[in-house]
Each structure stands twice: as structure tokens, then as C-alpha cells.
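Page 37, continued from 36.
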């Protein structure tokens, strides 16, 4: 269905309709219900009628993406190669007003928030408050004994085997009853406390929302500081993030990029409370702040070289949704090997939003790629492949169109 013209009225601020609630549940399940890893390079996918790389070609591809049926109402890409960042965008931040997207607009960063919990944990490893071999049993003895051998390393690279709380029937029923419910984020793992591990820790990769909840709880136990305060001390202040926060409610700070379900168009920016995802996806930020974050995080500015080497021990595993090129997993970060070179980063999706943040391993070149609708394999696999192709072209634009 075509999107309404800028200025057309859309429904906002009301309780989400049943169809949108189903979409929200797909969002929470999409990360953990993948049967296999989407690792194939995306270069062969069709990016649209406008091929090639370079800013002009990328701009045309963004416009085509917005014009695609079920495509995002808006998209913004921030390319930073030294000097002033370059901003490319298409569509709008708000279908009701027709306002364009700005790098200072707030947005839900979805599972790119897992990189933030990775940053906190790795800094605490550097300081000796935690070790990569620290176990749930020793650090969080109140969690189930069946989980006691799971290590911080296994949580950070999604090889823990923890059952995913976001699949639990009771959690989903509460969410359906009141999508804006404020959960106690520190009790989210209670929903699966009676379940065994899905596999022996370290035996295989499975992306799980439970992993980063446990990471945040381990950080709190090791320091006796709330996770929100650890984010401020370890991440926000050192990297100069002024518009980033971890709320518990559903309201978005102004100004913000409105997120939409697009068939038919409906504003879902405030459909769900962030408390139900917390450290696994609840952070709100801006493209400007996310650019600052990924440049510092990918380069290892928040930790030591020794810890950085451990972070970059790559295993087979894809982010959710899959990023450009071949995906491999590290500790709180993914490696994307594209036809033009390698970048490190993270992706994410949430009702109304899809995110990619990536930078070269030295942090000098970066991109932030934000959409105002949710795209993943469960929602629209064809659109995801098209998005991955455009993302890979964005990486090539960032790197000058040749292999590095």
C-alpha cells in the first residue's frame, strides 16, 4: 500500500490495535526465533534501480527504499570519514507534519543497545571488577542453579544457552494485556527461571534477549551501581553522548523520529514500554550520539588493548537483523565483511525502527543507518535483503568504493 503524502493524518498516542500488537510481539520474537544464521553476503541482492556506490548513488537508493511498498517512511544515514559528517536522508520524520529527519532526532536504538551493555561489561573487565570467565553462579547466585556455569564471555557472544524471556507465554500475555506496562527490568529473567539451558554453554550460537539482561545484572552486582548510572559513567560521559538515555516508559523525548507500521501506516513510536527490553534494547538516542558512540566503541576507546583483543575473537553468528555482508560475532559487537572491506558494529529492530551502526576497526570511518519502520526476516525477508544490499553500498561509500 502506498504511504500517505506528507501531512496526511496518522493515528498516534492511542492504545495499539490488535494488528500492531501482533507486530510488536513479532519484534520481540524475531531475534530469538531464527532457525539458522543469515551469513551470506548481500552484494548479490538487488539494491534498486540505482546501482553503484558514492553519495549520489546512495542518495538515490535511499529514495527508492522509501518509495518501496512496505518501505520506511523515513531514513537517515550519517557518514563520518573525518571532518564534518555527511548526512543523507529520504522521506520524513513525521508523516503528519512532513518534517524531515535531523541527526538530533531521538529514536529507539533497539538491539544496538546490546553494544552499550558490552561497553559497560568490557570496561569492568579492564578494571578487574568482572572477568570474562566470571560465572552467573558466582556473580548472581540468586539466578537458577541450572545457569550457574554460564560465563560473561558466553553472554556477550550469545553462546550462553539461556532461554529467552521474550518468548515466555506469561511475558507475552502481560504484554498483550497492556503493551505499555512498566516491567521491573531486573526481574525479566524470572519469566524463564524455571527453564533449563537450551544447550551446553559455549556449544553453539543463539542470539537471545536474555543474555544482555544478565550482563547488566552482573555489572550491577559487581559494582553496586545501577546499570543506568554505569551507562552514564562508563559510556555517555567519556564519549560525549548528550541525548542518550535508558527510559522505562513508552514516551519519546522531543524531537523524535516517528516509527511506523506501514501497512496501513500507523505511528507505533510509543506503542510499547521500553522496560520490557531494558539492557537488551531499551535505549533512546540520536543519530548524532550513535555516531559518536560507534566511533569510540569500535576503536576500543573505552577499554584496554588486551580486552579489545578478547572482544574481537570472532565466531560464526549474525546480528538481528543480519547486517551487511558476512556476519560474525564478537563480545558485544559484530564483524561485517563486505565486498569493500570490514566494519564493526551492531544492528537492531523494534516496532517502528531498524538500526545499523558500524565503523572501521580504528574508529576513523563510521556510519549510522536508521529507518522509521521495523525490518527483519520475520516481518519482510525480501525487504531485509534489499536493505542489506543498500547498507553494503553505504559501507562501500564510506570506504571509498574499494576493498580495504
Amino acid at each position: 500500500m502506498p504511504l500517505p503524502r506528507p501531512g496526511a493524518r496518522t493515528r498516534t498516542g492511542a492504545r495499539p490495535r490488535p494488528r500492531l500488537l501482533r507486530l510488536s510481539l513479532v519484534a520481540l520474537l524475531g531475534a530469538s526465533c531464527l532457525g539458522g544464521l543469515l551469513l551470506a553476503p548481500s552484494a548479490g541482492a538487488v539494491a534498486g534501480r540505482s546501482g553503484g556506490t558514492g553519495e549520489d548513488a546512495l542518495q538515490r537508493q535511499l529514495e527508492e527504499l522509501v518509495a518501496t511498498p512496505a518501505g520506511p517512511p523515513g531514513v537517515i544515514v550519517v557518514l563520518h570519514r573525518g571532518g564534518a559528517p555527511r548526512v543523507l536522508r529520504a522521506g520524513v520524520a513525521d508523516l503528519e507534519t512532513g518534517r524531515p529527519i535531523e541527526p538530533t532526532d531521538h529514536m529507539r536504538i533497539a538491539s544496538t543497545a546490546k553494544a552499550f551493555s558490552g561497553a559497560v561489561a568490557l570496561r569492568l573487565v579492564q578494571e578487574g571488577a568482572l572477568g570474562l570467565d566470571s560465572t552467573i553462579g558466582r556473580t548472581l547466585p540468586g539466578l537458577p542453579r541450572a545457569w550457574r556455569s554460564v560465563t560473561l564471555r558466553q553472554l556477550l557472544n550469545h553462546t550462553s544457552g539461556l532461554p529467552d524471556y521474550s518468548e515466555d507465554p506469561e511475558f507475552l500475555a502481560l504484554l498483550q494485556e497492556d503493551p505499555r506496562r512498566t516491567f521491573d527490568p531486573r526481574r525479566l529473567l524470572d519469566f524463564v527461571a524455571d527453564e533449563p539451558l537450551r544447550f551446553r554453554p559455549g556449544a553453539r550460537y543463539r542470539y537471545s534477549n536474555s543474555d544482555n539482561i544478565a550482563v547488566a545484572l552482573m555489572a550491577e552486582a559487581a559494582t553496586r551501581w545501577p546499570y543506568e548510572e554505569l551507562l552514564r559513567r562508563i559510556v555517555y560521559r567519556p564519549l560525549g553522548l548528550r541525548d542518550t538515555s535508558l527510559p522505562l516508559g513508552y514516551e519519546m523525548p522531543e524531537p523524535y523520529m516517528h516509527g511506523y507500521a506501514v501497512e496501513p501506516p500507523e505511528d507505533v513510536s510509543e506503542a510499547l514500554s521500553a522496560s520490557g527490553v531494558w539492557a537488551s534494547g531499551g535505549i533512546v538516542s540520536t543519530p548524532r550520539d550513535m555516531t559518536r558512540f560507534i566511533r569510540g566503541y569500535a576503536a576500543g576507546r573505552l577499554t584496554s588493548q588486551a580486552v579489545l583483543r578478547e572482544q574481537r575473537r570472532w565466531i560464526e553468528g549474525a546480528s538481528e537483523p543480519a547486517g551487511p555482508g558476512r556476519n560474525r560475532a564478537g563480545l558485544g559487537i559484530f564483524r561485517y565483511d563486505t565486498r569493500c572491506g570490514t566494519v564493526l558494529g551492531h544492528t537492531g529492530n523494534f516496532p517502528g525502527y531498524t538500526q545499523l551502526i558500524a565503523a572501521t576497526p580504528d574508529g576513523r570511518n563510521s556510519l549510522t543507518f536508521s529507518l522509521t519502520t521495523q525490518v527483519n526476516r520475520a516481518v519482510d525477508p525480501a525487504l531485509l535483503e534489499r536493505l542489506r544490499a543498500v547498507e553494503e553500498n553505504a559501507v562501500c561509500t564510506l570506504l571509498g568504493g574499494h576493498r580495504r
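Residues 1-13, 29-38, 44-49 have pLDDT under 50 and may be disordered. Flag for discussion at group meeting. Residues 235 and 283 are 12 Å apart (CA to CA).
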